[in-house]
Amino acid sequence: MSATVNGTLHIVGAGLAGLSAAVAAARSGRKVVLHEAAGHAGGRCRSFRDEKLDRIIDNGSHLVLGANRTALAYASATGGLEAMIPTAPAFPFADLATGSRWTVTPTSLPAGLGEILRALGLPWTGKAETVKSRLGGGRSFTRFWLPMCEAILNTAPEEASARMFAWTMRRALLGGNAALIPWVFPLGLSAALVAPALATLGSFGAEIHFRRRLLAADGHGLTFDDGRIELGPQDRAILALPPWALTSVLPGQMPEMPTRPIVNAHFRLDGPAALPGGSHFLGLVNAAGHWLFARGDVLSVTVSAADSLAERPAEDVAALLWDEACRAIGLPASSPPAFRIMKERRATLAHDRDTIARRPGPRTAHPHIFLAGDWLASPWPCTIEAAIASGLASARLATAQARLSFA
Ligand SMILES: Cc1cc2nc3c(=O)[nH]c(=O)nc-3n(C[C@H](O)[C@H](O)[C@H](O)COP(=O)(O)OP(=O)(O)OC[C@H]3O[C@@H](n4cnc5c(N)ncnc54)[C@H](O)[C@@H]3O)c2cc1C
User: Fold this and answer.
1) Which of 59, 97, 216, 305 could form a disulfide with 286 if both were Cys (CB 3.0 to 4.6 A apart)?
2) What average pLDDT does range 187-201 have in this prediction?
3) 129 CB less than 6 Å from ligand 1?
């Protein structure tokens, strides 16, 4: 094994992949400098105070499952786990077309054994199979596999890779009760996954620079919008950036990576947002909205693979999703209360076969510069788990410490 590297580790991008790499390296004693273009950390997974709602809201409601072990280890290592709540492994659904309601638990899956085995990848799943071609004929498609596909892969089942879906289903359904536990964020994403990481970095003496955008990277250094940093022989860099940011930073080295949007509507209610059974979330079937999330007096609606909704005016989106939310939780029809519509146009990659196959690994043409991010080659789709695991993997490469972990 190569000797441990001792120079400065420059990490560009303070999304979860960059924070993960920075925390892992700083905890191992490495000098870390983190550079971020925005005025805040968290990237696609962050909270902010919304002036109109006068509440802390997330750019989009997120869930982590117990199967996301690297994400939970990172949250534990930074102290962020205290701001997360494990809920019962139960997924309530409401069908807005028929009015029927049901709850999926580890002991009451909505599908028969044959369908479950097909979803898990048995018999063998062909590369070209989509979630629709593999599971679309089954009785439980609309009630379970479709909402799971949209939530996990953020990709319509007609194009979503059945292989990747099967892998995530195996991690969740074959991992015991703990793997299916949904962890929620009662104080917001940043309180759990961002602020504790920044505090941890501060305690290890890491430097953090906001509003510093990387323009170019070459074998000798990093060019930012406020100056250039030359890399010494022991220095390393991790570019924890999404693919669309890397096309100009590393010209000619990045494949084109199609993405899919997620739209979130946040409504400020007059009183606490209450979902049936006191659940933190509710899946919707036969509806434009996919999941409702309740946090305090804010009711949020998530729509994945939201290509057409993302093009509609915010007022239309709010009216449509509020009407559905009222029907789902039994509120009288009314015009929407104060709302905020968040359109994350490049929320994740499109998880179709071709895009998945194009994902590169963490190495670049420059031996001292590595990549990190949810979109790099991995069995996971673009998720918190993928981002954090990728950051850790790149920190191992950049520090030449294969055993680096959050334990
Ligand atoms: C609405 C929404 C809902 C989601 N729901 C879930 C969920 O329920 N569960 C789940 O597991 N995952 C979910 N995800 C996915 C998850 O949020 C992402 O996979 C993860 O946050 C990606 O982290 P990242 O660090 O790889 O990338 P990013 O978050 O994109 O971080 C990249 C960082 O680099 C910075 N940057 C960009 N260009 C430059 C530059 N030139 N110089 C310096 N800095 C730069 C950016 O500002 C950003 O901070 C969701 C995503 C969205 C958008």
Assistant:
1) 97
2) 98
3) no
The confidence score (pLDDT) of residue 3 equals: 56
Sign of CA dihedral 108, 112, 114, 115: negative
User: Considering the domain 9-83+187-256+353-399, what is its CATH architecture?
Assistant: 3-Layer(bba) Sandwich (3.50)
The finding on whether 213 has its CB within 6 A of some atom of ligand 1 is yes
Is the CB of 12 inside a 6 Å radius of any atom of ligand 1?
Answer: yes
Please name the residue whose Cα sits nearest to atom 12 of ligand 1. 383
250 Cβ inside 6 Å of ligand 1: no
Q: Is the CB of 261 under 6 A from ligand 1?
A: no
Using 50, 70 and 90 to split pLDDT, how confident is the model at 1? very low
Cα dihedral across residues 134, 137, 141, 142: positive or negative: positive
Question: In this structure, which residue's CA is closest to atom 52 in ligand 1?
Answer: 347
| Atom 41 of ligand 1: nearest residue by CA position | 214
Q: pLDDT band at residue 193, thresholds of 50, 70 and 90?
A: very high
Q: What is the largest CA-CA distance in the chain?
A: 66
Question: Domain segments of the chain: what residues?
Answer: 9-83+187-256+353-399
Tokens of 174: 């074959």
Q: How wide is the angle at C-alpha 392 spanned by C-alphas 39 and 388, nearest 5°?
A: 55
Rg (C-alpha) for the chain, rounded Å, is: 21
CB atoms within 10 A of CB 108: 9
Beta-carbon contacts of residue 308 (< 8 Å; ≥ 6 apart): none
Alpha helices in 87-242 (DSSP H): 113-120, 131-135, 146-153, 162-173, 176-179, 189, 195-203
